[in-house]
Structures are given as C-alpha cells and as structure tokens.
Specification:
The structure holds two protein chains of two kinds.
Chain A (H helix, E strand, L loop, with lengths): L2 E3 L3 H25 L13 H26 L7 H8 L1 H5 L14 H23 L11 H31 L3 H7 L1 E3 H7 L1 H8 L5
Antiparallel strand pairs in A: 1-2
Helix pairs in contact in A: 1-2, 2-5, 5-6, 8-9
Chain B lengths: L8 E4 L16 E6 L8 H10 L25 E10 L2 E9 L8 H5 L6 E4 L4 E3 L9 H5 L6 E2 L6 E2 L5 H5 L5 H5 L5 E5 H17 L6 E3 L9 E5 L19 H7 L2 H23 L13
Parallel strand pairs in B: 2-11
Antiparallel strand pairs in B: 1-5, 2-9, 3-4, 5-6, 7-8, 10-11
Classes of the chains: A mainly alpha, B alpha+beta.
C-alpha cells in the first residue's frame, strides 16, 4: 500500500508541543475558572504553583502556535468550496461523506479550528499579560484588568470548546491520529478525505 | 489575616456549598469613622502597624501629609488629606482614614478563585486567610474601593482585617483603641449607625446641611462607616466613590457566564461521545489498519 506524507517531522513535533502546552495551560486555567475545577491545582503542585506556572504555559503555547501558524497558514486560506463544505456539514455529521465537496489539504472545519485557535490565543496572550502577577498587572488600571479577565475567560472557554471539537474529529475520522503521530496516510485515505490534495501530491487525476 | 477556628463564616471564596451555619446570634459589628472629629494625628496608623506587626518602608514626601502615600501590603490603613473649598474661600481640610470597608457583599471575595482564601465572618468582617492566598490579584480586580495590595515580598494579598483576631476575643480594633479624639468607634453596627445619626444631627446644627453617614447600599452596606460633613459629595474625601458596587464586568466574569461555559464544555464532550455511539467512526476502506 502506497503511503503519502501528510505531516512532516517538524509539523508533528510542533503540533504535539502545542497540544501538550494546551493541556497544561487549559487544566491550570480551568482550576481558576470555576471552583469545581480547583482540585486541578494539585497536578501542578498547589494553588500558588498553578498561578505561577499558568502564564508560562500560555506564553509557550502561543509561541508554539506561531510556529504552527507559519507552517500551516497557506493551506488554511479560505476558498469558495469551503463555504459550500460548511453548508453541507449536517450530512457529514450523519456519517455520510460521499456528497461532500472535494477537499484540499485541509477541510473547512480544520481551517476554522486553525483560525479560531489563532485568534483566541492572541486574545489570551494580550489580556493575560494585563493581569499577570506579579510583573505586569500593576501597570494596567483596574478597570482595564476587569475587561481583560473577562475577555481572557471568554476566549479560553471558546478555545477549549474548539479543542474538544478538534480532538473529537480526530477520534471520529480513523487514520487522523496516526497521521499526526507518524506523519503518513494511505492513498485510499487521502482520496476519500482530501481528494484535491491527493491529486496535487500524486499528480493523479483519477478518482 | 488569620484563620480563626470559627463556625461564624457567612461567605467563603470559591466555594459552591454552604458555610458552617450553626450559630445564629452573632451581632454584626461596624467601625464608625467620624471624619469631622479626626485631627489627622495618625495614631490609628501607628496602632495598626504595632498590633499587626507591620513596618512599611520609609517613603518620600509628595507635598502632602499623606504618609505613606498609598495603602500597601505593610500599610493597611492610611490617612488621606484633602484640601477642598466646598464654599468658595472657605478652606476645609478633610482627613479620611482609608482602608478596607468590609463590604456586606465583598467584591474581593466574589473574584477570588482560591477556596477559603477570603472569608466573611457572620459579624461582617471580611478577612484574607493568607495561607490560602495564591497571589493571583483577582481581589484587586474585584474590589470597588481599590484596597487590597499584593506584597512584593511574598506575593500574598493584604488589607485591614478589622483586627479580626482582637474582635474574636472581645477587644476593639487597634486603631479604635488608639484614637485620641473618639473619631473611631467600634461596636454593633446598629449602635454605630445610631451614634452616627447623632453626629449627623449635630453637624447639621453646625451648618453642615449635607452631613450624613456613608454606608453605601450598592455593596449591601459596609462594616466600616464614615460620618461625612459632605455626604452628598463623598468624592471630596480623596475620591471615595459615591455609589460603589461590584463592577458589572466582575459580575459577568464571576456570575452566570462561568457555569454556562462549564456546561458548554461538558456538553461538547458528551455530544461527541454520543455522536460516536450513534453514528460511529468514519473509516477508509482499503486503508491501513489505523484507517479502517
């Protein structure tokens, strides 16, 4: 069976660094998000350590995503066919992929995940710095900090929801996890899910 | 400041269940600060330092009597001196003892993410339990009076405890004990309001038509109340807010939005799980073993 390279070594390593930091930043952030999650501070060595570490997880996650951004931004540019693909997602969710428009390297859902995560991370970074104790918070007026914590909490919630969708999609479409772990997919997989990309990398117009 | 082993906790930060509620007969206390009787001697500041064992750095002179210039982790109360002319050419020197107001509805407690780091006792005192403080600064964000300060030395939040340790054993706060003019009094809130009303009546007789007691309802009332000569313009007193309340931003941040967001996250996970149960995975015929 011929295999195609979908993600290069650097792509995968970069992706999993971001994923791991997302887990750390997400769990440590959730600990402060709602009292029912405060027990998560135990993972990071208690409340004070969680407060100290969370911003660093966040900043490194952002930097990691900058790497992903420059690797992936071109393939995530929105095309007309993506709008059509989005319109037909209800049938896809029924498990029927046959009627979906042909997809390039990334489908519309993947593109939305990419851009939404990027926007959320920018908001999280900017607002997070504004109430980062003990270094930067004092430099901002209290009313600005109030706005910042609100936007921070909101974008974090959106980011987590997107991540849940992202992770589920990977579990749902068999072969995705392997693609991001080992980098390869079969020709059959590429034809089925990313026909335009398949044609591009194989030069084969046969479907 | 310190955790009194107590059943008398009315509110506890980041806690979604009820606090111990066995005792019902605790009197609500209040400290009354009669600005019109204050001579600005700062005995209260010194007594606060002494009792709480605080020593702030020697600051610099900013051209006013305010010293130190602001509240800090080592200065839990500060005299604020305002020179104003309410009536033209009639200078008034308004001296307000600034510090925690001990709100009935404390914004710091609402904003705090660490369970039990901020408590409100049933007697009304709002206290920071420092060993539970994680140093995030949310209390600063939540406070309508800009009172809590994060220590540069240990990254914990500090503020006036209304000498909860002294009050717990039947003593009055240190500042009250030290005040030479009786401008600071302490007792049951009801008694303090009665006394305040007497002072207000007296001030009105002396020509301060707008005298009144400052016990702002926007935060449910406070357990530190002021007698002001110009209660209609509290801003004159070094920017005392005229109608303080917990910011709507803090309400939104700590109110309904969070449970909804948590519900959405859990809902998304469950929706995914049951989608998989109902629809099943998308497999690729003729693919590798990972793909089918």
């Amino acid at each position: 069976m011929r295999m195609l390279i979908r993600y290069k070594d650097g792509d995968r390593i970069n992706h999993w660094i971001v994923a791991f930091l997302f887990l750390c930043a997400g769990l440590s952030g959730l600990a402060f998000f709602h009292p029912s999650f405060f027990f998560l501070t135990a993972i990071f060595g208690g409340g004070v350590w969680t407060r100290i570490l969370h911003p660093f997880f966040g900043v490194f996650m952002f930097l990691g995503f900058v790497g992903l951004f420059f690797r992936f931004w071109r393939r995530n540019l929105w095309k007309d066919r993506d709008t059509e693909w989005m319109r037909r997602t209800p049938t896809l969710l029924k498990g029927d992929e046959e009627d979906m428009p042909a997809v390039g390297k990334n489908n519309a859902g993947q593109k939305i995940v990419f851009w939404a995560m990027g926007i959320c991370l920018c908001l999280l970074l900017i607002t997070g710095v504004m109430f980062w104790q003990p270094w930067f918070a004092d430099g901002f007026p209290i009313v600005l900090r109030r706005i910042a914590v609100l936007i921070h909490a909101f974008s974090a919630a959106v980011l987590i929801l997107i991540a849940i969708v992202h992770i589920y999609a990977a579990i749902w479409v068999k072969g995705s996890v392997h693609a991001m772990m080992r980098g390869t997919v079969s020709e059959a997989w590429a034809r089925k899910h990313h026909l335009l990309w398949y044609r591009e990398v194989t030069g084969n117009d046969r479907t | 400041m310190s955790s009194l082993q107590s059943l008398d906790i009315a509110k506890r930060s980041a806690t979604t269940t009820q606090s111990p509620d066995a005792r019902k007969h605790v009197t609500e206390v209040a400290k009354l600060i009669d600005v019109s009787s204050c001579i600005g001697c700062k005995a209260c500041q010194v007594a606060c330092m002494q009792w709480n064992d605080l020593r702030d750095d020697v600051g610099d002179n900013a051209g006013t009597y305010d010293n130190p210039r602001d509240l800090s982790a080592q200065s839990w109360t500060v005299m604020r001196y305002s020179e104003v002319e309410v009536v033209e050419n009639k200078l008034e020197w308004l001296i307000r003892k600034d510090g925690c107001m001990h709100c009935e509805d404390p914004g710091c407690l609402k904003a705090c993410p660490s369970p039990g780091a901020i408590v409100k006792y049933t007697n009304g005192i709002v206290d920071f339990i420092s060993e539970h403080c994680i140093g995030c600064g949310n209390c600063v964000t939540g406070c309508p009076f800009d009172v809590p300060r994060i220590s540069k030395a240990d990254n914990k939040a500090y503020k006036c405890s209304l000498c909860s340790d002294r009050v717990g054993v039947g003593l009055e706060p240190a500042c009250v004990k030290a005040c030479p003019t009786g401008a600071i009094r302490f007792g049951a809130k009801e008694d303090m309001l009665d006394f305040g009303a007497e002072r207000v009546a007296d001030l009105k007789e002396r020509g301060y038509e707008q005298a009144g007691v400052y016990d702002p309802s926007g935060v449910g009332g406070t357990h530190v109340v002021y007698v002001l000569q110009h209660a209609d313009k509290p801003e004159l007193y070094h920017g005392l807010p005229s109608n303080p309340s917990i910011s709507p931003l803090v309400w939104l941040w700590k109110g309904a939005a969070k449970p909804l967001a948590v519900a959405a996250m859990i809902g998304a996970v469950l929706a995914g799980f049951f989608h998989y149960v109902k629809v099943g995975p998308i497999r690729t015929e003729g693919g590798t073993k990972d793909e089918v």
